[in-house]
């Protein structure tokens, strides 16, 4: 499984969000919207569980950069932008399930909100549980209530942000460089949480395209 992630692990998440190419921007945006709608419609129109399994695990075989080329420059308040961030979040977890589960568990312990309940997380949340949870959330986009899946992704991101921020505080004196890295990661997760929540509201208003 590890060799499937050689290409994605060459890029950090902030580089994904600024992925650049040489094609016409209007064509790229149109392709992003068309492929996102085609993927979502195709997944919802099939009863074959194998098809959904392949969609969820697409980046395991092809790498996250394959989707970055299509969706990474899409607006956060768009369907391709939402799908991109879900897949990106899943890829981060797959690449470091142990580290991410530790941040998630710390977030559950420190965040005084209902976000843990919204995600449906098992407590304690170990590496296997957090990978399963990420897959459940992604599956929820293609089966069931799309808005609920986005809400779960938003809560998931906020928990990770809280956990990363808490661990950063612990590391501030002993390892300032690590603390700075975790603070940056916490800010990124926090922003993703806001974006997922905004997308959920747009979806319920019929405005997520």
Structure description:
- The protein has 11 helices and no strands.
- It is globular, with a radius of gyration of 17 Å.
- The longest helix has 29 residues, at 176-204.
- It is an all-alpha fold and 209 residues long.
Return the structural class: mainly alpha
Largest sheet: none
Number of helices: 11
Tell me the distance between the termini.
34 Å
Provide the residue-averaged pLDDT: 87
Shape: globular
| Poorly predicted segments | 1-11, 15-21
Helix share, percent: over 70%
The total strand number stands at: 0
Tell me the β content. Answer: under 5%
Q: Order of SSEs, N→C?
A: HHHHHHHHHHH
Gyration radius, rounded: 17 Å
Short description:
73% of the residues lie in helices and 0% in strands. It is an all-alpha fold.
């Amino acid at each position: 499984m590890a060799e499937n992630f050689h290409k994605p692990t060459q890029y950090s998440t902030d580089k994904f969000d600024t992925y650049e190419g040489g094609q016409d921007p209007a064509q790229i945006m149109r392709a992003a919207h068309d492929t996102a709608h085609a993927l979502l419609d195709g997944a919802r129109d099939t009863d074959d569980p194998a098809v959904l399994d392949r969609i969820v695990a697409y980046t395991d075989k092809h790498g996250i950069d394959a989707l970055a080329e299509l969706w990474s420059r899409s607006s956060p308040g768009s369907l391709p932008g939402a799908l991109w961030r879900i897949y990106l979040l899943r890829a981060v977890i797959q690449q470091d399930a142990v580290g991410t589960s530790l941040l998630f568990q710390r977030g559950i312990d420190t965040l005084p909100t209902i976000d843990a309940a919204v995600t449906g997380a098992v407590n304690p949340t170990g590496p296997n549980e957090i990978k399963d949870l990420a897959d459940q959330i992604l599956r929820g986009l293609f089966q069931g209530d799309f808005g609920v899946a986005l809400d779960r992704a938003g809560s998931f991101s906020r928990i990770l942000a809280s956990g990363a921020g808490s661990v950063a505080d612990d590391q501030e004196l002993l390892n300032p460089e690590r603390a700075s890295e975790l603070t940056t990661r916490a800010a990124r997760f926090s922003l993703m949480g806001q974006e997922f929540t905004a997308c959920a509201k747009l979806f319920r208003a019929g405005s997520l395209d």
